[in-house]
């Protein structure tokens, strides 16, 4: 997630909202850098700090290592649960083994023959009614077991086994991601402008680790009056000067023009200027040599085409 840091919103109001030269619009703003604050996605002790403040990093460069031992143990435990759930799903899918079907049929046949004998003995008054009822119960149970074994698992049982399998698979994938997240890599190409943690410290999920700034281009937000707004166009050329390099010009272009008016920022001093409605305009300036620094004021001139 990108956030614009160091955005001391432009002191940048036009001097009276108009330049003395009608062919240009002049304003002052504050140079801003695009920053990414990188946070821990997996908790653990910081084992090794690789990147430090001032280092230039590329996308995918390893910045820091977090101890992943606990996450590996949890993942291996979940892997065992997944393999068990997969086996149960396959068992439900295939149904009973052939030998189980044969055994169930044999039990049913024996129970049926036993019930017939008990009925004959009961008619001859050689056994009690309870013994006959017990034989009927054994016959009924063995019949149901045999029919269930032949039929195999119900669709609901198969669906439940599949759901348990998929659930443990997703949990295992989540833990694998935690293991991977213990290797912290840069999401952008830029410069490490802040390191928030030291080796040996315990990082929790969400703990800020680094701030990485893209210093190859810088942004300057200025404000123009309603009367000057029609003169500003997207991709319009902008000339930038900063006090530290009075003789050097930086060329940029307009990349954003607000469609909503706002009151002049509070840091404008005169009562007259504070009551004016203005529109924000963002200018992007290449910074290949890194001379432009975030937070310093800059004068912006927008030439107006005749």
Low-confidence stretches: 1-20
How far the N terminus sits from the C terminus, by CA atoms, comes to 41 Å
Q: Please provide the count of β strands.
A: 14
* Assembly state (oligomeric): single chain
Structural class: alpha+beta
Mean pLDDT: 84
Return Rg in Å: 38 Å
Strand order of the largest sheet: 2-9-13-11-10-14
Largest sheet report: 6 strands, antiparallel, barrel
The level of helicity is 25-40%
Shape: elongated
Order of helices and strands: EEEEEHHHHEEEEEEEHEE
| Fraction in beta strands | 25-35%
Number of helices: 5
Give the tags.
about 300 residues; 6-stranded antiparallel beta barrel; alpha+beta; 4-stranded antiparallel beta sheet; about 35% helix
Structure description:
The protein is of the alpha+beta class and 306 residues long. The protein is 35% helix and 33% strand. The chain is built from 5 helices and 14 strands. The chain has helices at residues 69-94, 98-123, 129-151, 155-181, 271-274, and strands at 2-5, 24-39, 44-49, 56-57, 62-66, 183-185, 190-195, 202-203, 208-225, 237-242, 245-257, 262-263, 277-286, 297-303. The strands form 2 sheets. It has a 6-stranded antiparallel beta barrel with strand order 2-9-13-11-10-14. A hairpin with a 2-residue loop joins β10 (237-242) and β11 (245-257). The protein starts with a strand and ends with a strand.
Mind sketching the topology for me?
Layout lengths: L1 E4 L18 E16 L4 E6 L6 E2 L4 E5 L2 H26 L3 H26 L5 H23 L3 H27 L1 E3 L4 E6 L6 E2 L4 E18 L11 E6 L2 E13 L4 E2 L7 H4 L2 E10 L10 E7 L3
Antiparallel strand pairs: 1-2, 2-9, 2-14, 3-5, 3-8, 4-7, 5-6, 7-9, 9-13, 10-11, 10-14, 11-13, 12-13
